[in-house]
DNA sequence: ATAAACTTTAGAGTTAACTCGAGGTCAACT
DNA sequence: AGTTGACCTCGAGTTAACTCTAAAGTTTAT
């Protein structure tokens, strides 16, 4: 029910330093301290950390995340802003996913290319492997 | 056949400053200069910039990208390293894509949640909308 | 009871990746 | 001839997000 900073550090894959830094930046306004001044994280705090991970992982800055947390703390008057923020984040995320698909194609091509060159040398590679040639042209256009 | 730094800047969405910075860091070893000392980018250079974008976009640092370019310039003796690098990058990219799918679920949930709260208030939300409740439990587990 | 392990704060330092500014060259218009 | 605009180099400055240190207090294990 209550976790030390070290336990949370392990669970979330963040250093204790980073957790304190996040708190200092206003990202963890709900974390309590016990009588001795040690932080005690609740399950709810872990939920916030997962949300922070999600937003950070989809390209939001800590400042943007803090904005959301501030809105949350302001209460119901900011519901629309918060919804809007997630909608924007979803658009960005979809773009990002599309970009990664493209990158994956390019990397797959590179892997196929290097496999081919390592196996049979560079000479005559396009005649030998028309599929690779097609992939190359799909990705790079005429040039390369 | 030859592009100025300004043209490349527009084409690639990078500032001229950034392009010069990349060159200084050893990421564009093939860019030529004309008699007046102005950079002249070729189509091949644009290809390199696209690869840089791809590797950067899949989480590689500029230092890592430079490593690849150095290997490339060393010639055939580094073919295996280069293949290995792309294979590793592919693994990371797959992980990243899986992470983004998770994040998308969470964001979709948040959007559904805020839509519901804005439309009908927070009271009785779980009874009113069992699908939302199920989504919530799928994403957050027991807590929230 | 005492050592080892963990946590605290405040503040300084680091890293990656830009980002900018000053001062200068050069070609093209007016 | 002068102005405009794009380009050059060099070096300094900025930003985000950590990352670390020191000195002190707390908890846990023997």
Describe the overall structure:
The structure is a homodimer of 144-residue chains. Chain A is an all-alpha fold. Chain A folds into 2 domains: 1-74, Multidrug-efflux Transporter Regulator, Chain: A, Domain 2; 79-144. Helices cover 71% and strands 3% of the residues of chain A. The first copy, chain A, has helices at 5-12, 16-24, 43-57, 62-74, 79-120, 125-128, 130-140, and strands at residues 32-33, 39-40. In chain A, strands 1-2 form a two-stranded antiparallel ribbon. In chain A, β1 (32-33) and β2 form a beta hairpin. In chain A, α5 packs antiparallel against α7. The model of chain A has no long low-confidence stretch (mean pLDDT 96). Chain A binds chain B through residues 43-44, 46-47, 50-51, 54, 57-58, 79-80, 82-83, 86-87, 89-90, 93-94, 96-97, 99-100, 102-104, 106-108, 110-111, 114-115, 117-118, 140, 143-144, and chain B through 43-44, 46-47, 50-51, 54, 57-58, 79-80, 82-83, 86-87, 89-90, 93-94, 96-97, 99-100, 102-104, 106-108, 110-111, 114-115, 117-118, 140, 143-144. The structure holds a DNA duplex (30 and 30 nucleotides).
Keywords:
DNA-binding; 2 strands; 144 residues; Multidrug-efflux Transporter Regulator, Chain: A, Domain 2; mainly alpha; two-stranded antiparallel ribbon; 7 helices; homodimer; 3% strand
């Amino acid at each position: 029910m209550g976790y030390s900073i070290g336990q949370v550090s392990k669970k979330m894959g963040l250093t204790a330093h980073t957790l304190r830094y996040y708190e200092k930046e206003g990202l963890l306004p709900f974390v309590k301290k016990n009588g001795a001044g040690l932080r005690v994280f609740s399950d709810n705090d872990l939920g916030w950390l997962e949300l922070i991970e999600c937003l950070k992982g989809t390209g939001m800055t800590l400042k943007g995340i803090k904005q959301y947390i501030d809105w949350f703390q302001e209460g119901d008057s900011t519901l629309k802003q918060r919804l809007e923020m997630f909608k924007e984040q979803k658009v960005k995320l979809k773009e990002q996913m599309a970009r990664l698909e493209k990158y994956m194609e390019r990397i797959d091509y590179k892997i196929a290319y290097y496999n081919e060159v390592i196996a049979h040398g560079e000479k005559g590679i396009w005649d030998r492997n028309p599929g690779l040639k097609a992939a190359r042209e799909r990705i790079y256009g005429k040039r390369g």
